[in-house]
Amino acid sequence: MADKKFSGVIPPVVVPLKQDRSLDVASFEKSVNRMIEAGVDGLFILGSSSEVVFSTDERRREVISNMVRIVDGRVPVLAGIIDTETERMIEHGKAAEQLGVDALVATCPFYALQGIDEIEWSFRCLHDALDLPLFAYDIPVCVHNKLDWKMLLRLGEDGVLTGVKDSSGDDISFRFLCIANEEAGHPLTLLTGHEVVVDGAYLGGADGSVPGLANVEPYGYVRMWKAAQEGDWATVKAEQDRLARIMHITDVTKGVKGFGAGVGAFKTALMLMGIFETNQMPRPVHSLKGENVDAIRKVLVDTGLLEG
């Protein structure tokens, strides 16, 4: 049976930077404590929202060590060990284990692109080399491979994977996995990474969510999870609709796309709300400025997160 301590709302933490791009520890503490106080069930560090692929090994260690210190055992900490190939992921995994995280999260290899047999073997190699629970991160837009749901279930049944974070955008595959996982006795904890359709994922059998927007508005995601546990689907839908309106911070900007539009919008919102000092981005991504900041401010005002 999947370890249910990893269920519920587990935001992928956005990492604040100072103007010189050093880690803004004070803002980091403020944001992490705010999410824990809102009632989240865990925190995922060094995923896409945490700028993992922009981070040196030293920055990865700095982020994890500060995260573990700030959290101080209040909720589980999942750490991404994402890298191009298996051996590098093993190195990151051993470092994360030594720093005191509770679980590891890995994509498939993504430079020397491989087929399903090699991808499956990679996860098995990670499991054999590392001691902590292992989650598969399904994000084909970044790694150029969609994880096969039958493979994921097989790895769950074999005890290789504890769970899956699904950011694939393939709701059909995720639904198939949810059904098959239940029929197999629920060997996997299944988490959706899609902020705007969490309600549907819960209805389909997901064990929790990993919403980047929860950095900006964690309270609604916590209320939605609690309502889902009580079977109050009207409240679940109402909360999701409200959060979907806030998510427009990621599509009101102009001249920017991808990471700069998504995580850039989260950072800008957190700056406008007084949680981050800056909305600085890692090189070579530009920070949002001018009219783009104004557009995000308007969404926050219109949805009640900022005063007009």
Automatic annotation (TrEMBL):
PROSITE patterns: DHDPS_2. SUPFAM superfamilies: Aldolase. Transmembrane segments: none annotated. CDD domains: DHDPS-like (cd00408). InterPro entries: Aldolase_TIM, DapA-like, Schiff_base-form_aldolases_AS. Gene3D superfamilies: Aldolase class I. This is Dihydrodipicolinate synthase family protein. It comes from Olsenella profusa.
